[in-house]
Design a protein that fits this description.
about 500 residues, mainly alpha, 20 helices
C-alpha cells in the first residue's frame, strides 16, 4: 500500500474549504514551534538555583532546543515525503509531551539538555516543517494570505505563553509547570489530526482500467518469455551507486543546490539570520541599561509582539495582491533591509519614548519578514520541491541562528555598550536585503531570457501553469471490488504464461 505522501497525484489546491481548518492547525503548530523555546526562559532562574549551575549552562537548554528544531529540518522533510504531514505532526506532538513530562523528573542539568533540548526540540521540528508544507498543498492563489495567518501563531502563542508560564510557575513551581506544559503540547497532536491529506485520485472507467490491465499482462508475459532466453546480468557498481542516490533524492532533493533561485535565497537567509534574533534577546536588557525600570522594559516586548501579530496577516494580504505577488521576492528583500534600518537607528533612541517607537517599527519589520519567509521559498522552487527545500534551508540557518546572539553578546562585553550590537545586526540585515534584491533582479532577468529562448526554439515546449497542473493531475488507477473479475483473468493469463515457459 503506498504511503500518503506517495499515493499518487492529487487534484490542484482548493484554495479554501477545509484549507482554512488546516491553516488553523498550522497556526497552533507553528506557534508552539517558534514561541515555546522563548517562553520557557521564565523558569531558568529557579532551575539555575536548584541545580547550582551558571547562567551560560542553563541558557544552553534553549540553545539546544532551537538548534534541534532547525537542525532536524531534513529529517522532518524526509518523514513528510515518506508518510505525509498528518502522522509526522501527531508524532511530533507526542514527542513534545513526552519530553516535557520527562523533564519534570530530571535530577541534573544534563538530563534537561536531553529531555527539553533534544526530545522536545525534535518534536517541535516535526511540527514546524509539515505545517508549512501542508499549506502549500491546500493553497495556490491565496497562499500568501494563508501563510501570513499561520505564521501569526508565533506572536499570539508568545503573548499567551508568557503570562501562562508565570502563573504556572507561581502556583506549581518549575516541575509542576513542566508537567502541565507537556499536556498542553499534546494539542499539537490535535492540530496534526486536522491536516487531512488533500483530495483522492479520480477513478477511471472500467473500460480504461481493463485496457491498462491487459497491457500490463501482455508486458509481464513478454518479460517472462524473454527471461527464459536472456541470462540475468549483474548491475555494475556505478549503476548500484546511481540507484542509491536516486533513492536518497526521492526523499530529499539535493538537486536543489543546482537551482539558481534556491541558492540565492539560501545565501541571503543564512546572512540575514546573523542579525535577526539578537535584537529581540537584548532589547529589554538595553532598556534597563539606559535606566528604564524592569516592568517598562518588559512591556517593550509586548508592544513588539502585538504589532508583529497584526503585521503578519496584513503582509500576507498585501503579498497576495496582483501588484506584489508577481514580484514578491523584491518585497521580501525590502522587508529585510527595512528591518536592518530599524536596528541601525535604534542607538538614536535615548529615552523610553524612542524605544517604544523602535519597538513598533521593529515589530512591523519582523512580522513582514516572518510572513514571507516560507512563501518566497515556495515561490522559487514550487510546492512539489518545497518539502526538501525547507529541510535543507533550516539546517543551513541553524548555525547562524546559534551564532547571532553570542556574537552580539561578545560585542557588548567588549565595548560595554549595546549600540555596537544593534549596528552589527542592522548592517548585516541591510547587506542581506541588498544582496537578495540585486540577485533576484538578476534571477528574474535570466528566467525571462531563458523563457524567450525556449519559445524561439520550440513554441510548443512552453507550457502555462494551468497546463502543467492539468498534466500533473492525470487520472490514476484505483482498485475496487468491480475490478475483481479482471484481476482473476490477469492471474489466469499469468499462470498460462508460466506453464508455457516451464515446457
Amino acid at each position: 500500500m503506498p504511503s500518503p505522501a506517495n499515493a499518487g497525484p492529487a487534484p490542484g489546491p482548493p484554495d479554501g474549504g477545509w484549507g482554512w481548518v488546516v491553516v488553523f492547525g498550522a497556526f497552533i503548530s507553528i506557534g508552539f514551534a517558534y514561541a515555546f523555546p522563548k517562553g520557557i526562559a521564565i523558569f531558568f532562574k529557579e532551575i539555575q538555583g536548584f541545580f547550582d549551575t551558571s547562567y551560560s549552562e542553563i541558557a544552553w537548554v534553549s540553545s539546544i532546543m532551537l538548534a534541534t528544531t532547525y537542525g532536524a529540518g531534513p529529517i522532518s522533510s524526509i518523514l513528510v515525503n515518506r508518510y505525509g504531514s498528518r502522522p509526522v505532526v501527531i508524532f511530533g506532538g507526542l514527542l513534545c509531551g513526552i519530553g516535557m513530562v520527562s523533564a519534570a523528573f530530571c535530577t541534573s542539568i544534563l538530563q534537561l539538555y536531553i529531555c527539553v533540548g533534544f526530545i522536545t526540540g525534535f518534536g517541535l521540528a516535526l511540527n514546524l516543517q509539515p505545517s508549512v508544507i501542508i499549506i502549500g498543498k491546500y493553497f495556490l492563489k491565496r497562499r500568501p494570505i494563508a501563510n501570513g495567518l499561520a505564521m501569526a501563531g508565533s506572536p499570539v502563542m508568545l503573548c499567551t505563553l508568557a503570562p501562562l508560564n508565570q502563573f504556572l510557575f507561581d502556583n506549581f513551581g518549575w516541575r509542576g509547570s513542566f508537567l502541565i506544559l507537556g499536556a498542553i503540547l499534546l494539542n499539537c497532536c490535535v492540530a496534526g489530526a486536522l491536516f487531512r491529506p488533500i483530495g483522492a485520485p479520480k477513478i477511471q472507467s472500467n473500460e480504461e482500467v481493463k485496457e491498462i490491465l491487459k497491457e500490463e499482462v501482455t508486458k509481464d508475459a513478454m518479460e517472462m518469455n524473454s527471461s527464459t532466453n536472456i541470462p540475468v546480468e549483474t548491475k555494475p557498481e556505478e549503476e548500484e551507486a546511481k540507484d542509491c542516490c536516486e533513492k536518497i533524492n526521492k526523499y530529499l532533493d539535493f538537486s536543489l543546490f543546482k537551482h539558481r533561485g534556491f541558492l540565492i535565497y539560501l545565501i541571503g537567509n543564512v546572512l540575514m539570520f546573523l542579525g535577526f534574533f539578537a535584537p529581540i534577546v537584548f532589547l529589554a536588557p538595553y532598556a534597563k541599561h539606559i535606566g528604564i525600570d524592569e516592568y517598562s522594559a518588559a512591556f517593550l516586548l509586548s508592544i513588539l509582539a502585538i504589532v508583529d501579530m497584526i503585521a503578519r496577516p496584513a503582509t500576507g494580504i498585501i503579498a497576495n495582491s496582483k501588484w506584489v505577488r508577481p514580484r514578491i521576492q523584491y518585497f521580501f528583500s525590502f522587508s529585510i533591509a527595512f528591518n536592518g534600518a530599524c536596528h541601525l537607528l535604534c542607538p538614536l533612541a535615548s529615552g523610553y519614548k524612542g524605544l517604544v517607537i523602535y519597538s513598533v517599527f521593529f515589530g512591523l519589520a519582523f512580522g513582514m519578514v516572518c510572513a514571507m519567509l516560507f512563501e518566497t521559498l515556495m515561490d522559487l522552487v514550487g510546492a512539489t520541491r518545497f518539502t526538501s527545500a525547507v529541510g535543507l534551508v533550516t539546517i543551513a540557518e541553524c548555525c547562524t541562528i546559534l551564532l547571532g546572539p553570542p556574537i552580539g553578546g561578545t560585542l557588548i562585553d567588549t565595548f560595554g555598550d549595546y549600540k555596537y550590537m544593534f549596528i552589527k545586526c542592522g548592517a548585516v540585515m541591510v547587506l542581506a536585503g541588498t544582496f537578495l534584491f540585486i540577485m533576484n533582479y538578476y534571477n528574474y532577468r535570466m528566467l525571462a531570457k531563458e523563457k524567450r529562448k525556449a519559445k524561439e526554439e520550440d513554441p510548443k515546449s512552453v507550457r502555462t501553469e494551468s497546463e502543467g497542473r492539468n498534466n500533473f493531475n492525470k487520472d490514476t488507477v484505483q482498485d475496487g471490488p468491480e475490478l475483481e473479475p479482471l484481476r482473476e483473468e490477469q492471474e489466469r493469463l499469468k499462470k498460462e504464461v508460466n506453464g508455457t515457459n516451464e515446457v
